[in-house]
Write a structure and sequence with these properties.
It contains five helices and seven strands. By secondary structure, it is of the alpha/beta class. Bound molecules: inosine 5'-triphosphate.
């Protein structure tokens, strides 16, 4: 089975990505976490640059191809913030939620549009970029957090068509439509066609 390192310190990403790969191509690719210290300096100016930095570091450490995603929540009323700074928006996830609610407290429903962006990049052990792809999902910032599933900003990300937040979806549901799923599907096909036996 093809092994690909996953350049992330976020166990939720591993869970989502592994679930998706099992759904589409069971037993063809195995994603493994980086062994040992993994602390890349995410100083890129775009999602793509940061996903490359994380994947290149993971590929170098592990000596096998590596995949990483860089994700952000872009809020229209905040001119696209926190965007690529979503991880550093506040110290912990609870503070990120309360800071966002506070920044949005006077914003009317119709102006609460937001989207998640996820850019994934696959890098060879020699640092060559093999494939990159971006997924996006649109929604609204809710006025209070709801739901116990997912992670990060999911409890505030409301999808009107489904009448629920991303944290009110099961893992399987989130994986049918999320920014990460939309970025990963073409990536899996590329891996199947170019790397897997
Ligand atoms: P790595 O860089 O180690 O992969 P991270 O959690 O810092 O882990 P990102 O920089 O991509 O990853 O994430 C930016 C922020 O967005 C961070 O606060 C996450 O919790 C949040 N986030 C990422 N994916 C998300 C998702 O699917 N749903 C909700 N929030 C998400």
């Amino acid at each position: 089975m093809l092994k690909i390192a996953l350049g992330t310190s976020n166990p939720h990403k591993l869970e989502e990505i592994n679930d998706m790969i099992q759904e589409v191509h069971p037993d063809s690719v195995e994603f493994v976490l980086v062994e040992g210290e993994f602390d890349p300096i995410e100083n890129g100016k775009t999602f793509e640059e940061n996903s490359y930095i994380k994947a290149a570091e993971a590929a170098k450490i592990m000596g096998i191809p590596a995949l990483a995603d860089d994700t952000g929540l872009c809020v229209d009323a905040l001119d696209g913030r926190p965007g690529i700074y979503s991880a550093r928006y506040a110290l912990d996830q609870k503070s990120k939620i309360s800071k966002l609610l506070n920044e949005m407290k006077d914003v009317e429903q119709e102006n609460r549009k937001a989207h998640f962006v996820c850019t994934m990049t696959l890098v060879a052990p020699n640092g060559e970029k093999l494939f990159s792809n971006t997924g996006r999902i649109d929604g609204y910032i809710d006025t209070k957090p709801s739901g116990e599933h997912g992670f990060g900003y999911d409890p505030l990300f409301f999808i009107p068509d489904l009448n629920k937040t991303m944290a009110e979806m099961t893992l399987k549901e989130k994986n049918t439509l999320s920014h990460r799923a939309r970025a990963l599907r073409p990536m899996i096909e590329w891996i199947k066609s170019n790397l897997a036996d």
